[in-house]
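Entry 12.
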Amino acid sequence: MTLATALVLQAIARGHRYGFEIVDVTGYPTGTVYPALRRLEHEGCLHSRWEAERRAFNEARPQRRYYEITAAGTRALGEAMERLHLLHALPAPRPAK
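Predicted 3D structure (tokens):
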């Protein structure tokens, strides 16, 4: 799992539910976030649903697709975070001579 994908999954786990909100919180462009969302859903880490068309219409905006993390996604996120912690624990590289 890439760092970008892990951060997208973490954003959803923290309660950010739709694409542009995830873009805002991660700082990644839509061209990174939306493919990651599709991959995560295909892998069973997320599931999604479209909001009611009426609600979007009443708020004069496009329909949102809401994402939720699955049990498999929670496990995958935990594994990714563990790898990141291990990476952080490595000694700093020495400058090249």
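Annotation: The radius of gyration is 16 Å. Residues 71-89 form the longest helix (19 residues).
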